[in-house]
Amino acid sequence: MESTHARKRLRLAWDVAPSSREVFLVLCDVRADRFEAAVPTARGASPPWREDDREGHYVFDLGENLTPRYKILSKIGEGTFGRVLECWDREVREYVAIKVVRSLRKYRHAAMIEIDVLNNLSKNDSEGSRCVQIRRWFDYRNHICIVCEKLGPSLYDFLRKNKYSPFPVELVREFGRQLLEAVAYMHDLRLIHTDLKPENILLVSSEYIKVPTCKRYSQDEIQFRCLPKSSAIKLIDFGSTAFENHDHNSIVSTRHYRAPEIILGLGWHYPCDLWSVGCILVELCTGEALFQTHENLEHLAMMERVLGPLPEHMIRGAK
């Protein structure tokens, strides 16, 4: 799917302190066993039924319930598919991320495919170390809701937090190793992600440290940047994942990470994921997307500037 300019993509800040109201709501649930008897109906009650918005998104207020089991704490993100909400799971007493899919038929259908992919990934990854783990799913008011483990910020969030200052090479090397292992794991299962990008790679932990940089605003002011305490990452967003033996859409991948064979209309397969990995690693090392364009011919010209002329066989077969 096309994205806007790499440095104008809006994302929710991951390190903004919660409001006092949100803190109160969390404390209420964490200590629910102490006062549940005082508010037995309100605590687990569902909110009043509402119409979806014009685009089919679920309409909610913070602090409401998403079924009696989940309390909505914040909105983590939003995309074409729907919205991702941070929720408190009352039953197992943990934070979870719930993808609430738009109530339109095509998105509901895509969500069921994603659930199949997530279950397949989870079943074959006993340690859950490569891809986000699905907890369960349910259908609520005509919205498919996919419950997953709560992870930390994306690598894109971290870059933006650091004003697009690159990661240390040693850290990029570790990210790259894990990313390649995760992609190889998916390919072994005959799955192609097709939408690899820094936004879809999440740190497992939100913890970070501040370290001084060489840059100074003045003689007395030291500039700092953030680095994650842990390098552990996981892949997310399998809504565009394709099975090897299924029909493949002609256009896949977000523009900046799209392989040349896709642009040229040559069809695509496993290598398109590897092209995206290469673009991602360059961006993590430099702080800037390698191919910042939205036009096919310019995109191909930029590729040739970096890699040399396109192979003759690709040009001959191009549409």
UniProtKB/TrEMBL annotation:
Record's GO cellular component terms: nucleus
Residues annotated as binding ATP: K99
Gene3D superfamilies: Phosphorylase Kinase, domain 1, Transferase(Phosphotransferase) domain 1
Claim: tRNA processing is one of the keywords in the record: no
Transmembrane segments: none
Ranges of residues in domain Protein kinase: 70-319
A Gene Ontology molecular function term of the record: protein serine/threonine kinase activity
Keyword Nucleotide-binding: yes
Keywords: ATP-binding, Kinase, Nucleotide-binding, Serine/threonine-protein kinase, Transferase
Family: Belongs to the protein kinase superfamily.
The protein, known as: Protein kinase domain-containing protein
